Amino acid sequence: MNLLFRLVWMMVTARRRSRCVMMEETHLSFRVMPTDLDVNMHLTNSRYFSFMDLSRVDHMIRNGAWKHIRANKLMPVFGSGPTRFRRAAPPFKRLDITTRVVGVDDKWIYLEHKIISGETVYSVSILKAAFVDDAGRVPVDRLLTMFGYEGDLPPMTEALTLIRDADNAVMEISAA
Fold first, then answer.
1. Residue 131 and residue 109: Cα distance in Å, rounded?
2. What are 25-34's pLDDT values in tens digits?
3. pLDDT tens profile 44-85
4. N or C: less crowded end of the chain, CB within 10 Å?
5. Which pTM was predicted?
6. What is the pLDDT of residue 2?
């Protein structure tokens, strides 16, 4: 229930935050509440991903993609996401989540999420996301046209290619 209230609050307040273009970094803040803690009394790992989900929706609302997603009955899906947890977030800590697109290929949009407080980095994630409709996965070029984005795209760096290749290797292992 805690995240439902945060989702509603984020959606209501997203329109008050500054607009952005699709490739700009956005920031969203949360406070670690007692309901976000695990038995070790720090932010539970799953909550990091929940905060990232909310941050992605905020990013899509602020860059205008959300209205196209809803109008075209698209569903965002998460492919994979290597995450590096660097610090434990204690109760009542204010955390900022940054979201930015760091690369695209023909199938996936790669997003970086950093969860930080001041200069302290709590986690960094590179997430692979796509959108699907009734016919299946929507190609990234069609998505960008649908969203009205005509700017430059971030390149697939060597690090992103390694992440993609590692993810493909995991799929090969699990298929064996």
1. 9
2. 999 999 999 9
3. 999 999 999 999 999 999 999 999 999 999 999 999 989 999
4. C
5. 0.91
6. 66
Q: How far apart are CA 125 and CA 112, in angstroms?
A: 6
- Which residues contact residue 123 at a Cβ distance below 8 angstroms, ignoring those fewer than 6 apart? 48, 83, 84, 85, 86, 87, 113, 114, 115
Question: How many angstroms separate the CA atoms of 81 and 127, rounded?
Answer: 4
Confidence of residue 3 (pLDDT cuts 50, 70, 90): confident
Distances in Å between the Cα of 66 and the Cα atoms of 55, 63, 112, 147, 160 are 13, 8, 19, 9, 25
Domain tally, the chain: 1
Q: What's the domain range around 45? A: 2-175
DSSP 15-33: TTSPP--TTS-EEEEEE--
**Token pair for 96:** 């900022």
Write the single-letter amino acid at 81: G
Report the C-alpha gap between 91 and 37 in whole angstroms.
7
CATH code at position 22: 3.10.129.10
